[in-house]
Fold:
Amino acid sequence: MKTDIQIANEAKMLPITEIAKELDVKDDELELYGKYKAKINDDFLKRMSTKPDGKLILVTAINPTPAGEGKTTTTVGLGMAMKKIGKKAIIALREPSLGPVFGVKGGAAGGGYAQVVPMEDINLHFTGDFHAITAANNLLCAIIDNHLQQGNELGIDQRRILFTRVTDTNDRALRNVTVGLGSRVDGIPRQDHFMITVASEIMAILCLAENLADLKERFGNILVAYTYDGKPVYARDLQAHGAMAALMKDAIKPNLVQTLENTPALIHGGPFANIAHGCNSIRATKLALKLADYTITEAGFGADLGAEKFLDIKCRKAGLAPSAVVLVATVRALKYNGGVAKADLGAENVEALKKGAVNLEAHIDNLHKYGLPVVVAINRFGSDSDAEIACLRAICEEKGVDFALSEVFAKGGDGGIELAEKVVAACEKKSEFKFIYSDDMSIKEKIEAIAKNIYGAKDVKYDAAAEKALADILSIDEKYAKFPVCMAKTQYSLSDDATKLGRPEGFTLNVREIKLSAGAEFIVALTGAIMTMPGLPKKPAAYSIDIDADGNITGLF
Structure:
């Protein structure tokens, strides 16, 4: 069986200029990064601004398991299948982080015969957007420490510096560090922290900004610290936002690539959904809606995280409304939720499937609360039995949702034709899109609305640190009470406990920390033991990645 990278290397890619021409992109509106990838500049975005929007389709999933679900694979395959049935479609995805690439998950460009290409470039440095984000983030950190060193005119309390450094690789040793050690000229000693780049507020701002001017203003609004007398200090107070925006002048432009079957794909931005808001950029999504009749995008991890944030944060901020939602699941993953060990998932077990299907049912129920049509896509494995498939079909019929088998991993677009037809039909159904909470609700009411209506929690408990942080935030400016909430929670469970599979109920959600992302314009609530800087596993994916003397990469998924 061929690996993903072998399949990708055999792909017959078209020059990206040909893909661009199909989208009516002119030569001077395209900025090439080699032969097969490019950025689209603002001239094209402005020219397309008056075109009507196509339909928006969100692809999400059940809670992830070691068995795998294949959300990105399904997204890519659905886009290719749309082309097979004569529909003009485009895909809008997030950029992969180097953290998972070298950590646990490996690459994130789809899989099998449903991939975006050039797969190696997309997974490894792409067009340098994440490096620009890292540089802009760490420039602000350097300016903060330099301000302390140069006399601290603003009176920043070094114990209350909120903005932290980032890097785009997993490195647990950097979670808690001390900077400024050495002689007097080496800075002011203080405790600092690192997050992974995808958790940076700079990443969130990139994905929510409408244009470069908006990006710069949002950078200036970042709350970086408090003074000794408790006053807020913003990036604009340190005169940092102009230089930060200058570093991002290219990164803000959406990236154009293609699938294995030459369907166009926009890949831009990449916040994680467990510690950030989990969606690609508003700019890329809005552009995609102008370019095709159907835009297929995804949100990270399960629907309790990625879809909730896509709908309650991104759609709220951008004025978007999906026409339909595709919910991806596998028989194997649902049996895992039903208590079957990973090694035994290949054996038929209808009873375990029924038991684990409560996770699927929870996500269906939650998506219906948003008033959206749902299509369940079962990413089929060779080990799935007819009895198991029939069981899932019956469950979906009972829940009143359409059901389609997806074999895009093995067959490319041909394996997603049934799914594409069901999704097109769903887009014609009546949609009554609504949010889970209103802007006028308090921050605690918003958190509780998510906890109770989406996660199934009985109540919410706040640590003393979270209570104090929230009080401090609300004392700065009453406008912050209007912000949406970005929940940081384990992806493996509907609860904040990764070990609680299926559909846990009656639990207490524990909020241990609350942060203001004033530039991104949302409140972050950290729950349970969620970490903003992941660590590497005992045997990281990096061990399997290699390159030969001719530059051929192996082991990249």
